[in-house]
Amino acid sequence: MAVTVTFDLEDNRRSPTQEERFVPMSHRFLEFAEERGISATVFIVGELARTHPQLVRRVVEGGHELALHGLRHVALEDVGPGRLRGELEEGRALLEDAGQRPVTGFRAPIFSLTPSSAWAVEDIAAAGFAYSSSVLPAANPLHGWPGAPRTPFRWDNGLIELPCPVGGFGRALVPFLGGIYLRYVPLPLARRFLRGLDARAVAWTYSHPYDIDPDEPFFVPPYAGWLTSRIIHTRRGATLGALEQRIAAGAGAGRPLAEIVQGLESSDLPAVAR
How many CB atoms lie within 10 A of CB 108? Predict the structure, then answer.
């Protein structure tokens, strides 16, 4: 099974006084991908298209898919139903203006599409997105939707969802292809989880600028506690090597998510009600 590479391009600083490290780390990731002939899906926080339009253009110039990671890096429930659609429309317009490319994909910050924020599905579709990549179908210290489908499905309004790949035993499921799990899940176990994915699943990996930045001074970001932040901060030097191993463990690098969605027949996908 080919492994699609995705990247969540966000500014995780607590304050503008902190060093702006996400820009060089994003360039580092893009260079890593392009040296290996990988076309990634890059989910960008919309506000960055206003402050860093050159970074959006750099993504496009590298042949990668542009997708939205929220107008702000804020969980869906913290944006709220009164504001979300407007923020999604604004973020999408900012990305399309900066990149001069259509934006059809959305990923909720921190995988925050959960039972308590299921109302957001209507806003995501209404804002013009063809697919979402926002559900983590497992329990998680931050956000998760235990029991959600683990293969692509169609929400009752037609929006296609590509859930995060998970592996594990019993109720102990983890997103083994992304973030901290890239550097904590041993390669033999990751290979086993990859082989165990349903044939209908879309295998995709995810990482962030900070995941490949071992020299960033430690701090606690606004969406995590001290212990989670400490785990996020360690072993970052191993991320890119682990990512390369996961791609090799599959059938090479997969296509960007938008291309995969274009090949799916929506009517053949199971429909899920909110």
Answer: 27
Tokens matching residue 230: 């400490």
- In 136-258, which ranges are E strands? 153-155, 160-161, 167-169, 172-174, 204-207
Q: Say which DSSP state 212 is in.
A: G
Q: Flag whether the pTM goes above 0.85.
A: yes
22-35 and 239-249 helices cross at what angle (nearest 10)? 30
How far, in Å, CA of 272 to CA of 158, rounded? 10
DSSP string, 100-130: -S---EE--GGG---GGGTTHHHHHHHTT-S
Mean pLDDT of 53-80: 97
| Percent composition of the chain: helix, strand, coil (DSSP 3-state, to 5) | 40, 15, 45
CA atoms within 13 A of residue 261's CA, in its CB half-sphere: 23
